[in-house]
Amino acid sequence: GTYYSQTTKHQWKESVQLVYSHSSTPMILLDKGGFSNEQSLRYYAPSPPRLVKLSWSEEGRDFEKLGEEELSAVLNDAPEFWLILSRNPRTQDYFLQLLDEQYTRDLSQEFYEVRVYHYTNENFK
User: Fold this and answer.
1) pLDDT value for 34
2) Could you give the CA distance from residue 121 to residue 76 in angstroms, rounded to a whole number?
């Protein structure tokens, strides 16, 4: 009975629905964790998001992540933004902690294997 009552599929549909219920063209910071995360996000999005990849590793190349200064430059033009974390053991909560120090988190929700956070940029002018 437990097998059928508990989900084992990453809840991307529910995560994306939450984001789009608050923003029609959201800025989403995605800690990539693999190609399937980006593909799932785009599949369930009713319109293309403004997507910022926080980390990436393509075709066997070295793992890379967006630096603090680069991220701050991107967020200077954003009154609000979303952070989505799913399956990225290399960065874990690095970006969550970084954003919590500099921006105001006003919404967070955890789904199966997907965590969603909304931030407002009080420095935006």
Assistant:
1) 66
2) 8
